[in-house]
Each structure stands twice: as C-alpha cells, then as structure tokens.
Design a protein that fits this description.
LpxD; about 15% helix; UDP N-Acetylglucosamine Acyltransferase, domain 1; 2 domains; N-acyltransferase activity; 10-stranded mixed beta sheet; alpha/beta
Length: about 300
C-alpha cells in the first residue's frame, strides 16, 4: 500500500507512538509485506528468525521490536509490538469506509456492464466494459475488474486475509488493506472466495476460468489462461504461472510456485514448487507416472508378505 503522499520517519513514529533510528526527515512512501516491498516502504518484523530477511529486504524502513544495527540507507521504527503498530498504520491510512448504497457512488462501471439486483459494489471499485456481475456478488472496496469479466452469484471478491498472530489471550488479526485485481476475459463461478492482499494485490490473470466453490488466499497471483476446478483451496502468497490446470479438491500450501503448464490432478496436496509442463497426483504429491508406479507396487505388498510367512 502506498500512502497518498510521502511522510517523514518522525511523522510515522508519532502516528504509532514509537522510537526511531535514522534521519527524522527520512522519506516514507508506503507499507507492505516483505514479498512485495519496494524502496520507501515500511516492513514489520517481530521475530529474530526473520530480522536479517527484513533488514536486507527492499524496504527502507523496518518496524522492529529490538534495537539492532541499522543498515546503511535505511531507518528503523523501534516498537514494543510491531504487529499491532502495523495495524495502527493500516487503520490510519486505510480506515474502514461504510457503504451508503448497494453500489457505491465512488465505483466506476464501464460501458455495457450489467450489475444484477442485490450485487454489492464497494467503494472505489473499478469495473471495465461488457462485464456481467450476477446477483448476490460482493465486490469489496478498491477491487479492479477488467473488460468482459463474468462473476457468478454468491462470490466474494476482497474478503480479509486469513492472517493471525497467536497471543496468550487469543488470536490477533492482521488488518487487510490490499485489493483484488481481475484481468480481462476472466470468468469466476458461484460461491468463490477471493481474499484481497494484506497490503498488495491478489490477482487473477487474463483469460483464466474458475469453477464454483474455490478459495483463493491473500496475495496469490494466478496467471493467464489457467483452469481451476471446483473445491480447490489455494493458500496465501501462492504464485500460479500461465496455462496451469488444477482439478477438483486440490490443496496448495502458502508460498509455493506452480510453474507454467503444470497439471494438478484431483485431490493433490501440493507442498512445494512444481516443474514446468509436468502433471502431478497424490498426497503427498508427485509426478503422476511415478506415483502410479508406487501405488501399483503397494498393491503387491500383501502377496509379498504372504510369501514370507
């Protein structure tokens, strides 16, 4: 998330009430999670395991819970609780905005687009030309849809990220300020849930088609001309490259890359990156011919055991 205008390090420290290390006038342009940070951004870190990664990231301001040596050309915001202070910044720069009508007055809707009754279009939404938004679709604030997009009933674009920190008193939610971006010629079936990015974008690439009952987690990027069948669950921060086919009930863990041309057969449990133009099957998943040979060998085990008696 980029701020409406640049701020100084001192100004940001005053907003969240923390100390800082660096030039008080150090330029701050936005805030983002570590996988999407750019120079001028704030990134937060609250565990020593990830200090080095955060300090060496593209972010030039690190919101951290310990005084450490500040890398050259960067600044620190020193906080007792970076998670809570990151949320304070989200509330300050992207506060919740109540809808005053079922289709927000600030929404931009392109020529030839049809919005069916009971669809909710949030604040600052942009929808392109010749789209069809069916009844009971909910498009959250700041989402962007290209041209010729079809969204079927019951689908939600822009729900909050499933992102929590466990504390002794319960789970603390990381607030979401990102968007969902749907490119041209995408069709999304009924009762899909596509979460917005925490600070960045969840993206559905041009020409991709999604069946019913699919979950797409925050900050996931789906490429062009992908085909995704029903009951697929995709965690946050997944990268799915172009021309990927995912069949029913596949589960994909966070932070993996599904390479171009991959085919995931039904009920795959995907726990690591895939190779391009390769078909996978099983849980744990593997290349389909190898997995079929393994299952054929397992079928022979009773006879093998019998012969050893």
């Amino acid at each position: 998330m980029k701020f409406p205008h640049k701020h100084s390090l001192k100004e940001i420290a005053e907003i969240i009430g923390c100390d800082y290390i660096g030039d008080p006038e150090f330029e701050v342009l936005g805030m983002n999670e570590i996988h999407v940070v750019t120079p001028g951004d704030i990134v937060f870190v609250d565990h020593p395991k990830y200090y080095e990664k955060a300090l060496n990231s593209a972010a030039t301001v690190v919101l951290i819970n310990k005084v450490v040596e500040c890398p050259e050309g960067k600044a620190l915001l020193v906080s007792d609780d970076p998670f809570k202070d990151f949320n304070k910044l989200t509330k300050y720069f992207k506060p919740f905005e109540r809808l005053s009508s079922i289709v927000s007055d600030s929404a931009e809707i392109g020529e030839g687009t049809l919005i069916q009754p009971n669809a909710v279009i949030g604040n600052n939404v942009k929808i392109g030309k010749n789209c069809l938004i069916h009844s009971n679709v909910n498009i959250g604030d700041n989402c962007i849809l290209g041209d010729n997009v079809i969204i079927h009933s019951g689908t939600v674009l822009g729900g909050d990220a499933f992102y929590y920190k466990k504390r002794p008193e319960g789970f603390d939610k990381l607030l979401s300020s990102g968007r969902v971006v749907v490119k041209d010629n995408v069709e999304i079936g009924t009762n899909n849930s596509i979460d917005r990015g925490v600070t960045g974008d969840t993206t559905i690439g041009e020409g991709s088609k999604l069946d019913n009952l699919i979950q797409v987690g925050h900050d996931t990027v789906i490429g062009k001309n992908c085909l995704i069948a029903s009951q697929v669950g995709i965690a946050g921060c997944v990268v799915i490259e172009d021309e990927v086919t995912i069949w029913g009930q596949v589960g994909i863990r966070s932070d993996v890359k599904i390479a171009r041309g991959t085919v995931l057969m039904a009920q795959c449990g995907v726990s690591k990156d895939t190779e391009p133009n390769t078909t996978y099957w099983g849980t744990p998943f593997g290349e389909v011919r190898t997995k079929l040979k393994e299952y054929a060998a397992i079928k022979k085990l009773p006879e093998i055991v019998k012969n050893f008696k």
